[in-house]
Amino acid sequence: MNDSVILRDYKPEDAANINELALSAFNEFKNQFENWTEFSQRLGQFSSLSNQAEIIVAIINEKIVAAVGFVPSYVEKPKHFPADTPIIRMLVVAPDHRGLGLGKKLTQECIDRAMRDNNSSIALHTSPIMKIALPMYQRMGFEKFSEAPDIHGVKYAVYIKRFNCKN
What we know:
Blueprint: E1 5-9, H1 15-26, H2 36-43, E2 54-60, E3 63-71, E4 87-93, H3 102-116, E5 121-126, H4 133-139, E6 143-151, E7 154-162
Parallel strand pairs: 4-5
Antiparallel strand pairs: 1-2, 2-3, 3-4, 5-7, 6-7
């Protein structure tokens, strides 16, 4: 079996796959959100993020198994994010493909794109319920920046990674 990972930019024909992937990835948290029905409707529209972000997909054996959105610094963001900082949105990994480093690969791709664009930092928001993602981000150098609004009763915070651009 060829398990090599291919990262590529989102194509419109990927929409249904990544929308389903987002729902599958967050399903383990459904009992922690006060209004899962409303939240899952937003998750099921992950592909609409392509209107403001560069969506990157990870493919193994011709199947999309992970995805993330990179929102450039010039795009308007919610007020709890620094206005001039790019952000990472909606990192999702298929449950049956976890533990392969896909989240780290996609996060690093977002960091690389931020550096490509000559930014000195990148931000994201995450929650303590994300027991795999949050420690991964911290190992990659993200530090807590501020609290963020709760999402359907789940606490979130903004994390930032600073770096030096060499461009």
